[in-house]
Amino acid sequence: MLKGKGIPVFITFIVGTIMIFSFFIPHKPFGDLEKISLNWYSIIAGFTMLLGVDSLIGMHYRKITRRTGNWGYSIVLIAGFTGTVVIGIIETIRLGTAFNEASYFTYIYNYFIVPLQSTMFSLLAFFIASAAYRAFRARNFDATLLLITAIIVMLGRVPLGEQISPNLPKFTEWIMQVPQMAAKRGIGLGISLGALGVSIRILLGIERSYLS
Amino acid sequence: MRFINFINKLDKRWIYLVLALCIIIPFLFPIGFPMKTTAPVKSIYDFIEDSIPEGGVVLIGADYDPSTMAELHPMAKVIATHALSNNLRVLFVTLYPQGAGMAQDVIENVLREWNNSNPDNQKELGKDITLLAYVPGVSAVVLKMGEDIIETFNEDGYGNKLSDLEVMKEIKNYNDIDLMVELAGSAVVLTWLIYANGRYGLNVGIGTTAVSAAEYYSYLQSKQAIGMLGGLKGAAEYENLLSKKGVYWGRKDATVGMDAQSSAHIFFIILIVLGNIAYFVSKKQKGGR
User: Fold this and answer.
1) DSSP secondary-structure letter at B194?
2) Cα B42 versus chain centre, distance
3) Are B92 and B57 in contact (CB under 8 A)?
4) Which tens digit of pLDDT belongs to each residue from B179-226?
5) Inter-chain CB proximity A151 and B269 less than 8 Å
6) What are the sequence ranges of the domains in chain B?
7) ipTM given for this complex
């Protein structure tokens, strides 16, 4: 008799097995079962967003009530979140969709989210510059090899490299297509085999950490 | 010796200032270094140019957000523009909530620029181009599209019923899509390669950030992907191809950006060399004592 953690493990086994069969045999009855599973998956994925929102708001609410470090930023987050949701709902009622060009929801996206996120990512260039200057040292053979390769690839990936020597982009392409790809493919195969192993362990109920 | 001390004690804010200038000045005064087209870029261009009949469908995956838009936005613009110039239909799809805003911006810009430059061949939202509504589920969405695209989304991103739109005419599933170009800086590219290409045989092209491009060379070699635009350079090469064809008229965002990237890369290399000179001189001095 199934009880306790045995129930989700049994459901995982049945659903997982159906999905594997339907991937390779997309005909009746597996095809139909897969279609139903995918619809359920989309619905559950929608609800996981709500869980994410609940978790995010809950965490920041607790930070505010307990006055933990940088709690002021949590007020900004909750105010921003609530404001965006309210404006999204109002604009959907007013214009039929919040994504209308004239909507304030689109305005928030274009003039708040886009510049803020772009700026955050742009800062990476400054950190890389500082790190390149202070940490990228030819301390040993491996570091020297990495350093020389990085310089070649950096030059070969910009038009200026082509001006220095027409062979530089070709050599860069060779680095990317041969040694780089060989290493990546090896890593990729390792990751895939590992994922396959973990998937089998989950299906058979050996790996249960996802339930805790 | 004073020079080595200067390098060792250089305040990083000076580095930030010079880097900022290296990036800003080329945007104001573009140099426009000539560029050769690489094979992975050319193969996507050639596929749209030669292998898709008029009225065919190009699906563009806008799975990126503002953090990577500097590299991926120009790609979306050139591919959509190229498809429209060949009288193909363009569908944008996004598996990320933030991608909808990116795709909308591209559609708006491409339609405006196209219609301003081609009064005799006007393109319309819903007739020639649209954005499919965001549906959560990532891999589930990709698999469902393989069975029925209209049933998967029901509406476009603007709230219109897909079954009423002319752009969706005779489109049922991947069999009716000629090419899919996935623009992303994340592993979502693999979802399209594994499910849409692997299971349904959809022709997939990749547009990705320069830092992620290394991930996908093996898929190019195995022909699972028909081509790849890697980083801003990939977009700039595509812009040049369209310019040669006489199609692209807007501001060449990627080509201008490449000048800034060139100068930033040179600055990085100078920093690395200076840092290493200082390191070896300091090491020698310590060894001599």
Assistant:
1) I
2) 14
3) no
4) 999 999 998 999 999 999 999 999 999 999 999 999 899 999 999 999
5) yes
6) 1-30+256-289, 33-250
7) 0.83
